[in-house]
Amino acid sequence: MSLAAPSSLLKVKEMHGRGRGMVAPQPLKAGQIVLRDSPILLYSALPFITQSLSSSSSMSASYFCDHCFRTLPLPVQGDSTLSQVSCPSCCHYRFCSSNCLSKALKSSHSSSWACQALSRLRANSLLLEQPLERQVQARFLIAAYSLAHISPSDFQIMLSLQGSPDDATIAAAKFLHPLIESLALSSPLNGFSLELTSALLAKDKLNAFGIMQPFSIDDDQRFVRAYGIYPYASFFNHDCLPNSCRFDYVDTNPPDDSHNTDIIIRMIHDVPQGREICLSYFPVNENYSSRQKRLSEDYGFTCHCDRCNVESNWSDNDSVEDNAEDEDENMDEDRSEASDTDNNPIGDNNDFPHAYFFLKYMCDRTNCWGTLAPLPPQGDTPSNVMECNVCGKLKSDDDFEIDKGQDEVPMED
Fold it and tell me: How far apart are CA 86 and CA 90, in angstroms?
């Protein structure tokens, strides 16, 4: 099963050496929303053991609904509020409202198999001894097998996404497949096999988007609260100097909004017709060696974007290579030169071509490292206010900060 482009603002195209990608079939403006995508699959990224609220780890400092993944208040001893919205089949999983519970009972908790599997995996000492990655993969497989029953068409869409088993996913499948099979439950779907398990893990590895914990200025180690498979967003390729970025508003949408886990792709700056639209798969402040390591290990490719081609020639002891903060200091010296490149945000003729990008489009808030993109234009009028896709900070082109109401974007200091 193949997916067509989701709107007239994007075109799916086979990119030489890059697989499928998204290109602009027409000129696109800064701040323009080119995609709003809903997940076909969501699953928790927390280890099973963090259900114990006595844990002092940072992961237990937040508590999330197991359907919409909004932040829940930590329960107070003796308060039975949360138990009123627990799954009736597996009481370990809690929801922010009866509405979310009702939706979960029609999706992720719709079958007794899924609930029993999740409960039994929580008690499996062999799995609990494994790294977090294995525990999360087990959750993904339960969600994927359930999806095959709930929505066979979405399951086929997931299988159509890019990603083939490699040594890592095959090794994971060899461990997890018999573990799930040992639950002594009826087969989750026709064709349940080691080969299918390997294929599913490969799709997850290349296509899952992380939904992060809320931003905190006091914590530089944000963790992933959940992962989602977004069928259209998965078509965007990576670039270390992206021209678009992803926004989500998991905790800020109204409580009755069933689309709070949607992700939105907005343009960072203007692009011409025919240009590929790219995201960065991680914060843009990472240095060359770190980026290449992550891309190779997590996605199986070496990046040859313009930025990487420049940085690959830098010496290993270059301060910009080794320390992102030193890189910002170097760019400050080039501010006047970079300001002359407004019509060319990347500054192709500069020895340091991404100086302007960092100056204008990277959030300078402590422990953030998010990317700034203009707010959506009003009609034909572009916005001169940019929003950070991590902390929600608003900033004008004149570099002054805008005070934003908490009901719109979270601002946790």
Answer: 8
> Residues 6 or more apart from 170 whose CB is under 8 A from it?
198
b/e sequence 375-394, b meaning 16+ C-beta within 10 Å: ebeeeeeebeebbbbbbbbb
Q: Which residues of the chain have pLDDT under 70?
A: 1-4, 49-62, 75-84, 184-190, 255-256, 315-353, 398-413
* Cα–Cα distance for residue pair 68/403, rounded to 1 Å: 28
Radius of gyration, alpha carbons of the chain: 22
**DSSP class per residue in 274-310:** TPEEEE-SS-TT--HHHHHHHIIIIIS-----HHHHH
Q: Which pLDDT score is estimated for 355? A: 81
Q: What is the pTM of this model?
A: 0.84
Per-residue burial over 273-288, b = 16 or more CB atoms within 10 Å of its CB, e = otherwise? eeebbbbbbbebbbbb
Instruction: Please state the separation of Cα 378 from the chain's center in Å.
Output: 27
